[in-house]
Amino acid sequence: MLQKYGALKQARAQLLQSAVDPFDVRFETILGPTEAILDGRKVLLFGTNNYLGLTFDALCVDAAVAALRADGTGTTGSRIANGTYGGHALLERRLARFLGRREVMLFTTGYQANVGILPALAGADDYLLLDADSHASIYDGAKLSDAAVTRFRHNDPDDLYRRLRFLADRPGDKLIVVEGIYSMLGDTAPLQEIAAVKRETGAWLLVDEAHSLGVLGEHGRGLAEATGIEADVDFVVGTFSKSLGGIGGFCASDLPDFELLRLASRAYMFTASLPPSVIAGVMQALEVLEARPGLHATLNRNATRLYEGLAGAGFALGPTISPIVSIRLDDTRLAAAFWDRLLKAGIYVNLALPPATPERQSLLRTSVSAAHTQVQIDQAIGAMAAIGLELGVLPRVMQHYINAAQ
Ligand code: PMP
Question: What residue segments make up the domains of the chain, in order of their start?
C-alpha cells in the first residue's frame, strides 16, 4: 500500500541529510508564548501563529480551567446528534457581536470551517473561484464540493475579473474565495479591487481571515475591516488557533437562512463539537483582544522591527510587512541546512517547502508575536544574519547584525 510514497520517502531521507527532521520537532516544555525547551536547551519561538501571545494569558487559562471543572473534558459528539452546550451558543453570539454579523457557525477547527462551508455553499452548477495560493483547507473544501473550481492568479483581480466574465452567461452562483493574510509570505489580498470585481460581476465573496483576525483592522476584525469593505463580504471564515490562542473555527454571515447550513455542512454535522474549556478560553481571548488594543499595536511594531531588520540584513522577503515574515530561498537543501543551524542557535522558525509554497520556493517562515521582546527579535535577526552570511545566502551583511548575534 505504501509503495506509492517512494518519492516522498526519498525526499525525506535527502532532507534529513541536511537537518534534524524539521517536520517532527518535539518540544519538551513550552515555557510561554515565545520560549520552549528543546533538547534540554531554551529556544526562542519564531514559528508559531501566536500573534497576540495569549496562549498563557492568565484570564484565558483561568476561564478554561473553570469551564473544564464545570462542564467536563469534552462534549463526546456533534451538536446535531449530541446537543449544543451553553458555551457554543454564547460564543456564537459573542463572535457575531464582535464581527458585526447576524449569524456565526462554529466548527471544531479552522480547517474544518473551510472543508465544511465550501461544499455546503457551492453545489452542482455553481462555481468556486479560488486564489491560486489558497490554503490547503480551501482546496480540500473545494474538492468536496460539486461546484466547478477555477483558480485565478494569486492576488490578481484582473485575472479574476476575466474568469468571471467568461462565466457570465452560465447559471449558478459564483463564489470568490480569498484570504486576509496569506500564510506563507504574509502578503494581503487586494481586497478593495476584489470587492469591486465581486460587485460588478454579481459574485459572492468569502474571506478567510485566519491570519488577519486580531491582527488587522482597528478592532481586529481582519483585512475586510482594514480595507473598509466588510459590507461586500458575504462570508467570513476564521480560526481560534492563531491570535486567539485556542483551537476551533467559524463562518459568519448576514445571509438570511444561513442557519440552514448547520443541516447541510457535513464537517459541522459529523464531528464532535468544541470542548467547553476551549470555548471558555476563546471567549476570554475575545475579551482580552477588545480590552487591550495595545496588544495589536505592539504586534505591528514587532512585525515592522522583524521585517525591517531582515530586509536590512539583505534577505529576500515577502512583499509586505506583516506578522508573517518569510525569507525566500531557491534551494531546498540550503533552506533545510539554514533552518537546522538556526535551531541549533536557539531560534525556532518554520521550514516551508514546495509544493506547500508559492512558486515552489523554499521558505524560512518566521512569525512574530505581541509577546516577543525587542531583545528577542534582535537576537533572531542577528542569528539569521550571521547564519545567512556563513551559508552564503547573504553576500554582504552589515557587521552590527553579526555582533548582535554574539
Ligand atoms: N485557513 C487558513 C488561511 C490557514 O492558514 C489555516 C491554518 N494555517 C487554516 C485555515 C486552518 O486553521 P486551523 O489550523 O485552525 O485548523
Answer: 15-45+293-405, 57-291
0.85 exceeded by pTM:
yes
Active-site annotation holds for 183: yes
Query: Ligand 1 center to residue 225 CA distance, Å?
Result: 20
Tell me which CATH code domain 57-291 carries: 3.40.640.10
> What per-residue confidence (pLDDT) applies to 405?
53
The domain 15-45+293-405: what is its CATH number?
3.90.1150.10
Catalytic residue among 135, 198, 242, 296: 242
Q: What are 39-86's pLDDT values in tens digits?
A: 999 999 999 999 999 999 999 999 999 999 999 999 999 999 999 999
**Ligand 1 in reach of 217 Cβ (< 6 A):** no
pLDDT tens sequence across 166-208:
999 999 999 999 999 999 999 999 999 999 999 999 999 999 9
Q: State yes or no: is 135 an active-site residue.
A: no
Q: Is the CB of 212 under 6 A from ligand 1?
A: no
Can the peptide bond before residue 358 be classed as cis, meaning omega within 30 degrees of 0?
A: no
> Quick one: which of 362, 377, 358 has its CA closest to 313?
377
pLDDT at 400: 55
In this model, does residue 273 exceed pLDDT 90?
yes
**Residue 210 half-sphere exposure toward CB, CA atoms < 13 A:** 26
Residue 274: CB within 6 Å of ligand 1? no
Q: Between helices 374-390 and 293-313, what is the axis angle to 10°?
A: 20
Q: Is 278 in the pocket of ligand 1 (CB under 6 A)?
A: no
Alpha carbon distances (Å) from 188 to 52, 111, 184, 209, 249: 19, 20, 11, 10, 20
CA–centroid distance, residue 109 to ligand 1 (Å) = 8
CA 111 / ligand 1 centre spacing (Å)? 5
Which pLDDT band holds residue 397 (cuts at 50, 70, 90)? very low
| Helical axes 6-18 vs 332-344, angle rounded to 10° | 50
Catalytic site residue 154? no
